[in-house]
Specification:
Number of helices: 14
Radius of gyration: 25 Å
Number of domains: 2
Order of helices and strands: HHHHHHHHHHHHHH
Strand content: under 5%
Length: about 325
């Protein structure tokens, strides 16, 4: 195959992502929520100012520590639209590839299954990110007029974007299945295991930050907590994309178990594995269980490749004809 195809692969992958993003920006599934979120955001800020409410989370602000009764109406609207509603569009992305056979054409263009799924995830999460960026003026107004501390606003922003990434990965994982019952089951299983397993995985970082909240180690412990939060969200998003990737596999041997089934089984037992590691490490090493599950899921659906030490097979080229005149057939031919 021409080496220029592999050389320009990142550029072509970026072009596909931009194309998908442009098409999604023209759809009504993006336009109407985008308009409604600004109407609701303006209304919520006016209501908060009229009520004179000053919603502040107790303690030190941190991502994924969502206190529903203290975040305010504005953040509930941002979470509902950017974090939940827009990423659900992924339910309709993978059937376009599997039913119409487009993934076969993309694979022939030297794009791997992972790259196909990842560009769809970037498109989904990018829509939520663009919508959330459009809400920054409201956040600035809340800071200068409403007296909201910027650390709390930053923590809530990170929570919304993290939830958007997880919902996007869950919807892509579910969209690879044909029947609606299977889609709903996979989506619920993924969210349940992510909530439970991710919660157990964050026990250790949360304990470290709580122990250091009254000491001079507060800032390092907060950095460690948020690094672990990024690892946890990235790992479960990675597992969701692996489920979607496994549905694009063109062939499965008769003696093989479907990779998507193995990954879903592994996802179902993930809370128990993470909990066992957390118990063995007194909670402090719980994030290691999340990394272990992500590593096992990655090795479940790896395309087999021959070692580099193996010689390449001989080319299967038919022998040239010994007939001096191919247009005339001799008796022995």
């Amino acid at each position: 195959m021409d080496s220029s195809l592999h050389t320009n692969l990142p550029e072509r992958l970026g072009a596909i992502t931009v194309k998908e993003l442009r098409q999604s920006l023209r759809r009504t599934s993006f336009i109407y929520p985008f308009i409604f979120i600004h109407i609701f955001a303006t209304t919520s800020i006016l209501v908060e100012f009229q009520l004179g409410s000053n919603h502040l989370s107790s303690g030190n602000p941190a991502v994924l520590q969502w206190e529903g009764d203290k975040v305010g109406y504005f953040w509930w609207i941002a979470m509902s639209v950017c974090g939940l509603l827009m990423p659900l569009a992924g339910f309709f992305l993978m059937p376009q590839e599997t039913d119409e056979g487009n993934h076969e054409l993309l694979l022939l263009a030297s794009l791997s299954r992972w790259q196909i799924v990842f560009e769809k995830f970037l498109m989904l999460w990018g829509l939520s990110l663009l919508t959330f960026v459009s809400l920054l003026p409201y956040i600035i107004i809340r800071y200068f007029i409403g007296g909201i501390e910027w650390l709390h606003e930053l923590a809530n922003s990170g929570t919304v974007l993290a939830v958007a990434a997880i919902i996007a990965a869950a919807s892509l994982a579910a969209s690879g299945f044909k029947h609606m019952a299977a889609k709903a089951s996979v989506f619920i299983l993924f969210l349940f295991c992510t909530l439970l397993g991710g919660g157990i995985g964050m026990i250790g970082p949360a304990m470290v930050m709580d122990l250091a909240k009254t000491s001079r180690w507060l800032v390092p412990s907060a950095i460690f907590y948020h690094l672990c939060a990024v690892v946890m969200v990235s790992s479960f998003c990675f597992i969701g994309l692996l489920v979607a990737r496994s549905r694009l596999r063109l062939a499965v041997m008769n003696f093989e178990v479907k990779p998507s089934s193995l990954i879903l089984i592994m996802l179902g037992v993930a809370p128990f594995i993470i909990g066992a590691i957390a118990a063995c490490t007194c909670g402090f090493g719980s994030i290691l269980g999340v990394l272990l599950i992500a590593y096992l899921a990655w090795n479940t659906d790896r395309t087999p490749k021959a070692p580099k030490s193996f010689p390449a097979p001989a080319p299967n080229i038919p022998l040239a004809s010994t007939n001096p005149n191919p247009g005339i057939l001799y008796p022995d031919q």
